[in-house]
Amino acid sequence: PVAPTGPGAPGGYGYPGYPQSGYTQSGYGWPGMPPAPQNGLGIAAMVLGIVSCTLFCLYGVVSLITGILAVVFGIKGRKRAEAGVATNHGQAQAGLIMGIIGIILGIAVIVLIAVGITAAINSDRNDDPYYGTLGPVATAASHR
Description:
Elements: H1 40-54, H2 61-83, H3 89-121
């Protein structure tokens, strides 16, 4: 005897003239996990932005370099977030803004150091009218 869902039953094993069953098997095993979001650029932009804003006192050079890197990574991170590849648009935006602030702080410190150096080099010491002169000199005639 043949089972009710055997070869000749409607919806069975594809017997000619009968429709296939609704169950289709796409492959073996469990379906794969969706890919993890790529948040590396947004995190890097935020970290570099924080470093840029806090280390501006190191002659402005560190702040300028890390600020530029934060802006570049922030722009790329925002583009990935807008494309749906990453999920941290806010971190990339924060890194971009802090990178811009770090660049401004770095340039300001470099300008202040340059102004201070040029002011120290070009300072006039003419405040004292006797600077550079011998002043009152005792002569041999006055000691007699």
